[in-house]
Design a protein that fits this description.
This protein is α+β, with helices and mostly antiparallel strands. It contains 7 helices and 5 strands; from the N terminus they run ββαβαααααββα. The longest helix is centred in the N-terminal third of the chain and has 17 residues. The mean pLDDT is about 95.
Amino acid sequence: MPVPHRLSLPVNAEDHIQGPPDASATLLEYGDYQCPYCGHAYPIIKAVQRHFGDDLRFVFRHFPLVQIHPLAEPAAETAEFAGAHGRFWQMHNLLFENQDQLSPTLLTTLTAALDLDPEELGNALEQGLFLPRIRRDIASGLESGVQGTPTFFINGEQHVGAYEFEDLVSAIEQRLPSRRKRAS
């Protein structure tokens, strides 16, 4: 089994975070909105979040594999655009829930669905306003040994292995302080 990598850039205020800052465990994903494996992981992560409740915080960082997923970067930019308007997680969810229809038209449609201005999104994409943020995530992923998506880190250590519900729950429980471990 390969030796897991450590997270090079600790979770910080610039990250997209769900869950309390004092949660017992942190699950961080480097993901790609066009990656079918990330799409498969999306409902699993939601279930893991429900399972642990306030004992878990979830962090998402962008890692678009542009060589094989040409819409991953514009989708990440669209999520960041929504985030600039306080709606990152809503767009994040919509992108994964509509992944099989991902297209430039869908990005515009989802933007309008969140009552955001599609023309403003178009300008942001054209100017690459959110690319520095996305590239920061990519750089931190590369420094942390990320080679594909999804890649998960639990409390700063790379999760090596399957990422089905039972696998993630078990891996997280192993990293919880013993007094807070849950009965399965």
